[in-house]
Amino acid sequence: LSRLFFTYQGIPYPVTMCTSETFQALDTFEARHDDIVLASYPKCGSNWILHIVHELIFAVSKKKYEYPEFPVLECGDSEKYQRMKQFPSPRILATHLHYDKLPGSIYKNKAKILVIFRNPKDTAVSFFHFHKDVPDIPSYGSWDEFFRQFMKGQVSWGSYFDFAINWSKHLDDENVKFILYEDLKENLATEIKQIAEFLGFSPTEEQIQTISVKSTFQAMRAKSQETHGAVGPFLFRKGEVGDWKNLFSGTQNQEMDEKFKKSLAGTSLGAKLKY
Ligand code: PPS
C-alpha cells in the first residue's frame, strides 16, 4: 500500500491526486476575503456542503456556479493557483488539510471557513467502501486491514484523529462555522439556513425549502453521474448515520472508543461530535 502514498510534512497523500510541487506552490496562494473554504476529513460530507453552497449562490445571484478546477485546493498541478487568480468571486475551496497546513492568507484575509465533521466510525466505513468500490483506487483487501490502517493514520490525508485535534482549537474562531453531518441528516433546512446566514446570503424561505429538496441523499444520488461522472454512484453510496454497525466488530468498536477518549474526549470537538 505504500505505493499509494507520498508523505509530505508527515502526512500521507494519494500519489494520484497530490504532488509535493503543488504543496510548495500552495504556500503562495493568495486567498480572498470572499473565498469560501470547506474543510473536512475525507468522507465527512464535503460534496454535500459543496452542493448546498452552489445552490445558495444560485438562489441569491441566479448565476450557476462554474469552477474549472478540481474543487480540492491541494489537488492538481502546481500551476492551478496562478489560474485561480482569474476566477470570479466567490471561489469555493474544498480541502482536507489540517488548519495549520492551509496557506496563511486564508486567515489573514478572513475568508469564511465551513468545517464539516462526521463521527469517525461512519467516516471510516465510508472511506473503506470508497477504496473497495471505485475501480481506479486500490482496495485494502479487507475491512479489518482498512480499519488497522485507518487507526494508524496510514490512509490518504492521514489520521482522522490528528485532523480533528488540529481543527479542534479553531472551531469557535471568527469566520469559522462548525457543521456536523449528523445534524444535516436530522434537520437539513435549518442547517442550510444557518449556512446561508454565516455566508451572508439571504435566501427566501421558499428557496431554502427548494434547496433542501435538491440536497437530500436520494436527489443527489439520482443526479450523481451527471454531476460527478462514473465515480458518482460510489461517492453517493448510502448516506446514512450508523452504517458502522454493519462492519465494526466489538473489539474494533472498543478500540475506537478508547482512541476517541484518549485523543478527543477532553476537547471542544469531542463534546460536539455526535459519537
Ligand atoms: S470525499 O470523497 O472525501 O469528497 O467524500 P465526501 O463528499 O466528503 O463524503 C462522502 C459521504 O457523504 C455522503 N453524502 C451524503 N449523505 C447524506 N445526504 C447527502 N445529500 C449526501 N451527499 C453525500 C456520501 O454518501 C458518502 O457517505 P457514505 O456513508 O459512503 O454513503
Strand content bin: 5-15%
Order of helices and strands: EEHEHHEHEHHHEHHHHHHHH
Profile the largest sheet.
4 strands, parallel
DSSP, total strands: 6
Helix/strand/pairing category: alpha/beta
Measured as a percent range, the helix fraction is: 40-55%
| CA-based gyration radius | 18 Å
* Unreliably modeled segments: none
Distance between the termini: 29 Å
Q: What count of helical segments does DSSP give? A: 15
- What global shape is seen? globular
Quaternary organization: single chain
Summarize model confidence as the mean pLDDT. Answer: 95
Identify the bound ligands. Answer: 3'-phosphate-adenosine-5'-phosphate sulfate
Strand order of the largest sheet: 4-3-5-6
List strands and helices in order, with pairings.
Elements: E1 5-8, E2 11-14, H1 20-26, E3 36-40, H2 46-61, H3 80-84, E4 92-95, H4 105-108, E5 112-117, H5 120-133, H6 143-152, H7 160-168, E6 176-180, H8 181-186, H9 188-199, H10 205-214, H11 217-222, H12 224-228, H13 232-235, H14 250-263, H15 268-272
Parallel strand pairs: 3-4, 3-5, 5-6
Antiparallel strand pairs: 1-2
Helix pairs in contact: 2-10, 9-10
This protein binds 3'-phosphate-adenosine-5'-phosphate sulfate (PPS).
